[in-house]
Amino acid sequence: MKRSISPDYAIEIIPDGARIMIGGFMGVGTPERLIDALVASGTGNLTVIANDTALPGKGIGKLITAGSVRKVITSHIGLNPETQRLMNAGKLEVDLVPQGTLVECIRSAGVGLGAVVTKTGLGTAVAEGKQILELEGQLYLIELPIHADFALIAARQADYVGNLEYALTAQNFNPIMALAAETVIAEPDHIVPVGMIPPDAVRTPAALVDHLIERAK
Amino acid sequence: MKRSISPDYAIEIIPDGARIMIGGFMGVGTPERLIDALVASGTGNLTVIANDTALPGKGIGKLITAGSVRKVITSHIGLNPETQRLMNAGKLEVDLVPQGTLVECIRSAGVGLGAVVTKTGLGTAVAEGKQILELEGQLYLIELPIHADFALIAARQADYVGNLEYALTAQNFNPIMALAAETVIAEPDHIVPVGMIPPDAVRTPAALVDHLIERAK
Amino acid sequence: MDAKDRIAQRVAQEIVPGSLVNLGIGLPSLVASYVATDQGVYFQSENGVIGLGSRPPEGMEDPDLTDAGGGFVTAVPGAAAIDSAMSFGLIRGGHIDLTVLGALQVDSAGHLANWMIPGMLTPGMGGAMDLATGAKRVIAALQHQTRGQSKIVNRCDLPITSTRQVDLIVTDLAVFDYCDAGLRLIELMPEIGLDEVGSKTQASFVVAL
Amino acid sequence: MDAKDRIAQRVAQEIVPGSLVNLGIGLPSLVASYVATDQGVYFQSENGVIGLGSRPPEGMEDPDLTDAGGGFVTAVPGAAAIDSAMSFGLIRGGHIDLTVLGALQVDSAGHLANWMIPGMLTPGMGGAMDLATGAKRVIAALQHQTRGQSKIVNRCDLPITSTRQVDLIVTDLAVFDYCDAGLRLIELMPEIGLDEVGSKTQASFVVAL
């Protein structure tokens, strides 16, 4: 059984300059309370790995606006003009990665593979400076695994030991990121007794989760 | 909505010499009725891709005993002495692959990746004749994707359109194989109306399933 | 009916019953409303749902059920929810029968550019590179011109999205595909003449009407 | 208590409360019965369950809930069912705290051989190569000798399972680990003398009792 902790307490373990994965897709399925606590803590110089930077005032958008982020590794920033403004002003480094490559690089880090071998990005700006591999007469791009110090993930429901269940499109990157960070902090909407999430419904096994965030006050 | 078909009818589309993935782990979560129909059909010269060859008289073991199989790509044959006897007699080619590499090679074929880059097998007999890749000072083995013409999979439950749900350890290779074959034939224990498998419980989306086997008589 | 709707309606005719289709955000998302609901067509949204439906009833929107733009959607009976690794596994693995993508430019080689305008706008590629590379069939759906400039060009000067050739281009003026001789005009949109297409297209093309 | 049970009991002492443990089939599977059930230890079985439990009640066995050998098992409260890709993702990704593997031989370099005897027996590696390579900690659990031959050897002559060095060896005679000087005897099993271990071990080792 895990003890649940407050968002503020969880965020204390994250130092300036940390490399953080944050679940969510345009702010859907994103751990808003952890993000609020992170903004409030003043922790800065972060590298954020996420599908997108959401919108101003929502999810990761709050961290961008607060200036907490030095670098973002992401697939899409089109709905957050603030991200583009900071990038153009040289205040935010943006590393754009195709979405399927991004999720697979995170997965490969989590499941102990050395690289992702993909056709996506071949012959485009994404391939610049990267190794090309020829296999059976076909060319592929070698993309390296993406690890993080912390993963902040959102879930619909956890049980007391930390098994997680997700809902609909709020799932997105969350279960993959739970594999790829040193420390995984999960913010569930609900925490239920052991046995209420049947084994077949678990999408992230408890063994991957280090900390559970307590219920919203 | 799909029409359900009989095991015999399904097996008619599989020609001699076909390359077939079969779900199951020591005969658990394996499509027994399809295997029985395949044995009865007399179809031969098959290449079977599966975690193991089960036991004599169970699951894939029936195909081995019937002499239907020319080659098996698998991780374990230790519980089927018949497989070892045929192998030693030169009547069955056995390609042994580490279990994690096997499932990941099947997945890579299914999700459009060009290779699996792994440390498993490095410096062992498994690495013989294979390409080694150095990335960031680490050595990895390059393992190629494994495709099949057909995947015969077992599921606890399907709905009328072909979404699949699995149970406990009967899941194993089934959802991964459903990604990696030209034609996917699913043998569910139960077939229920659309809407009875909630979207979050689906493990194999209907779009991957070509044929559903009708209820047992 | 405005230009975008005319394009969407024409693209909808390309959708085969029983197929799995991904529609990009923006113009392509309009295509869904021109596809009959009894055709067994499933729409995949790369954020993690197969079986995307229309808008939810007012007051019944679920914040955990959205499209790739973050807008509220419904799901049809038989829908499946998947994580991003599975979603892009389906895309890259060739399990999506058709994707319809918007474009800033498409060129004579069938290359699509739709993720950045250097120095001006950088939305990022999102899922477009995987879709353009991995889907079984790719349709570029775009307005023929922007500010009087042809978007059908001999060679993209914007960064391309994939080296894989698109299969079909549908604009408000015409429909093109590719043959051995390159870009080929195969259809004029209603009330559009060949001369107009010729004068408004930068790329060379052959005609096979 | 026979030799196998003594080995299993000793291995059980290495299991840290709250850890995730994979036990190989055969001898290693005996370890579970020596681990207290209130220690928050979860057993993973590579066929797809985390939270493997003991034998089910007679008549209540479920054919869909088995261990890696295909035998009926139970699952503890808080168990999770996973597919083989996730199962080996956890194994190869370093999420398994400890694996206990049987062995035909272990050598001075810490290499384990446990998947074939050329010309005699070829069970195959199953999950052993991934486990030996990817788990955070690897314990080889084996009888010290077979038919009077030492299984702790200077160099495996059987095909090895991984080049990754095992962390600990537990036999019915002794416990070894590895230090800069190589194989190191760190513990004698009850009623076993140093001379006996010396005479029954082919490999050279240093002693640090």
CATH topology heading of chain A = Glutaconate Coenzyme A-transferase
The total tally of domains of chain C equals: 1
Taking pLDDT < 50 over at least 5 consecutive residues as the criterion, the unreliable ranges of chain C are: none
CATH level-4 homologous superfamily of chain A: Glutaconate Coenzyme A-transferase
Q: Mind telling me which CATH architecture of chain C this is?
A: 3-Layer(aba) Sandwich
Backbone CA Rg of chain C: 17 Å
Give the overall shape of chain A, derived from the CA principal axes: globular
Q: Give the radius of gyration of chain A.
A: 17 Å
Q: How far is the N terminus from the C terminus of chain A?
A: 21 Å
**CATH superfamily label of chain C:** Glutaconate Coenzyme A-transferase
SSE series of chain C: HEEEEHEEEHEEEEEEEHE
Number of helices of chain A: 6
The biggest beta sheet of chain C reads: 10 strands, mixed
CATH topology of chain C: Glutaconate Coenzyme A-transferase
Give a brief outline of the structure.
The complex is a heterotetramer, with 2 copies of chain A (217 residues) and 2 copies of chain C (209 residues). With 217 residues, chain A is α/β, with parallel strands linked by helices.
What does this structure look like?
Helix content of chain A is 21%, strand content 29%. Chain A is built from six helices and twelve strands. Chain A has a single domain, classed as Glutaconate Coenzyme A-transferase (3-Layer(aba) Sandwich). In chain A, a hairpin with a 2-residue loop joins strand 7 (132-135) and strand 8 (138-143). With 217 residues, chain A is α/β, with parallel strands linked by helices. The longest helix of chain A is centred in the middle third of the chain and has 12 residues, at 99-110. Chain A is globular and about 55 Å long. Chain C is α/β, with parallel strands linked by helices. Helices cover 16% and strands 27% of the residues of chain C. Chain C contains four helices and 15 strands. A ten-stranded mixed beta sheet of chain C has the order 4-3-2-1-5-8-12-13-14-15. Chain C has a three-stranded mixed beta sheet with strand order 7-6-11, with no helix packed on it. Chain C has a two-stranded antiparallel ribbon with strand order 9-10. Chain C starts with a helix and ends with a strand. The relative contact order of chain C is 0.15. Classes of the chains: A alpha/beta (217), C alpha/beta (209). At the A-C interface, helix 5 and helix 6 of A face helix 2 and helix 3 of C.
